[in-house]
Amino acid sequence: MRGKWQLLTIVIIVALSAVTIIQVPLNFGLDIKGGSHIILEAEPTPGVKIDNETMDRAKNVIERRVNGLGISEPVIQRQGANRIIVELPGIQDREEAIDLIGKTAQLEFKDPEGNTRLTGADLKDAQAQFGGQYGQPVVALEFTAEGKEKFAKLTQENIGRNVPIVLDGEVLTNPVVNQAITDGKAIIEGKMSMDEAKNLAVLLKGGALPVNLKPAEVRNVSPILEKESISRSLNAGLLGLGLVLLFMLFYYKLPGLAADLVLIIYGLIVMATMAGLRAVFTLPGIAGFVLSLGMAVDANVIIFERIREELKSGKRLHAAISAGFHRAWTCILDSNLTTLITAAVLFYFGTGAVKGFAVTLTIGIIASLFTCIVITRWILTAVANKNPSGMIRSFLGKGAVQNG
Hints:
Structural class: alpha+beta
Number of helices: 11
Helix content: 55-70%
Order of helices and strands: HEEHEEHEEEEHEEEHEHHEHHHH
Radius of gyration: 28 Å
Strand order of the largest sheet: 3-4-2-12
CATH architecture of the largest domain: Up-down Bundle
Strand content: 15-25%
Largest sheet: 4 strands, antiparallel
Distance between the termini: 20 Å
């Protein structure tokens, strides 16, 4: 019964992966497919000084909003004193590109006359919580030291009047000031769910622009790599994969065939995960995938060699499979754990393509652990039940004879 449930789980995972790959188109980076090139220009606004610090903060905010997971791999860099270049891979539609950049929130607190008195540059923190008069979801804001003084002055001058809070030109809420607020804290409330409040808080905290930015130029860019280079890289990758599959098949026979099947399932899971995350495939990301594929092959080799050692020591087939996996697990876990730590460091300190490489490598390692330890073991056990003598001969040679 346990084997049937494991088979059903594997079938469901493979089916979902295949459907995801078919239904969700894969995205490719600037180096492979090209994308959109956008130049954003800072607009002067009252009370906001356009300097290097402001522009660097705006650049960092855009990168966090566009590439929070490190999987879209955009190119974001400064140009001159008041411009930021953004290149978005795989996006050829100019309006879509502008809309994506437009997700970066510009928060403004205005007086009743419509003058902007505070901006996102004055915001220190934003948190979703339950509050307000009836305990509904709200977004609690905390201002910087300078923002605290500005907000205190705004509320002192407008007691009994409406003070609009505006996000990207749209009025979020238009509260009436009942009293002066001097502690540097405020609440955005309205008809919203907790999820909506959390999303708004993340948008404000992670994406409050310190300055207004307008598109000065929007155009499409061609792939960085030539089609011939891409074709050669793809052919080299397919050739290497084919040689690995053939080696496993001829050297390990039945277990090698099982390993080849597991590697195919592994590839489906990784590609489906990347597609589901809307990740962008670039050469660094593909390198991370290939590296994790190599580690998956290594894991299978370690498992098979441990099983062979157990069989040579005189254990029966099923006992050898169980002991082989147990002995191999520590070695596989240690090697993968150290690689995961490296990937975490690359993700934390890296940007752009480095983050993408780290994310792809991490997904690949997790998929490798799952397929090698769970799926490989199930397949080997199933084959051992059906053809124990063939399995033993595959591990020990033609003359090997042993009960299962």
